[in-house]
Amino acid sequence: MATPHIESKLEDIAPVVLMPGDPLRAKYIAENFLEDAKLINTVRNMYGYTGFYKGERVTVFASGMGVPSIGIYAYELYHYYHVEKIIRIGTSGSFHKDVKILDVVLSTGAYCKSYFDQLLDNQDINYIEASHHLNEKIKKVAQDAHISLQIGKTITSDVFDLYADNEDVFRANFPGDDYLAVEMEAFGLFYIAKKLGKEASCLMTVVDSFYDKRSLSSEEREQSLNQMIQVALEAAIL
User: Fold this and answer.
1) Is the pLDDT of residue 220 over 80?
2) Is the dihedral angle over the CA atoms 10, 46, 85, 141 positive or is it negative?
3) The pTM of the whole model exceeds 0.90
4) 168 labelled catalytic
5) CA 144, CA 220: separation in Å to the nearest integer?
6) What secondary structure letter does DSSP report for 214?
7) pLDDT by residue (tens digit) across 55-84?
8) HSE of 75, CA atoms in CB hemisphere, 13 A
9) 10-236 is classed CATH 3.40.50.1580
10) Catalytic option among 144, 161, 208, 212
11) Rounded to an integer, what distance in angstroms lies between the CA atom of residue 85 and that of residue 130?
12) CA geometry: angle at 23 spanning 22 and 29, to 5°?
């Protein structure tokens, strides 16, 4: 079978998917963490790979950037390819004073002002929760590995936060100061998962902050991302 955006056969895709935004990060994960990884999608250069992690089949499939893009791939993977769980793994910013650069954030739910839900279902929902069951697996893996997670609500924005001309205006569009991170995809993933009765979670490494303007070295970024990837893979097979 195939969809307008995925060329894979039904049997090419595992029931659990790790979903980075960047196609090259999907390639990196396949080459460095999976055994016998097979390239199963190249449409629009949105790479997908299926391989084995500790003997269990796992698919890594890129989503692109933004709610519309992840909405397409999450819907097609859940609906047409019978995927049961998707864990988004990506990067984020933060304007919470207690969330530091290189912290790993686990989203309990995402707030968004997008029209995605209204156009899809004529709903007006600004906040939607992640899968509690899948999040509990991620928390257990992190705890067992002595990896600290920041856990709480996050924001999905249509605007990359560093490009907002006025920080006060940007902040004013989101309720309260208890949101740990801001990214661009989780709301769409969580919404599609809930609509289709599936599971979805989102892990993020914080790479920029309104409170910390330092630049990360490539080594720092890679080490933190690898830690996040490892947690997601372990949770995927738990």
Assistant:
1) no
2) positive
3) yes
4) no
5) 23
6) P
7) 999 999 999 999 999 999 999 999 999 999
8) 15
9) yes
10) 208
11) 11
12) 90
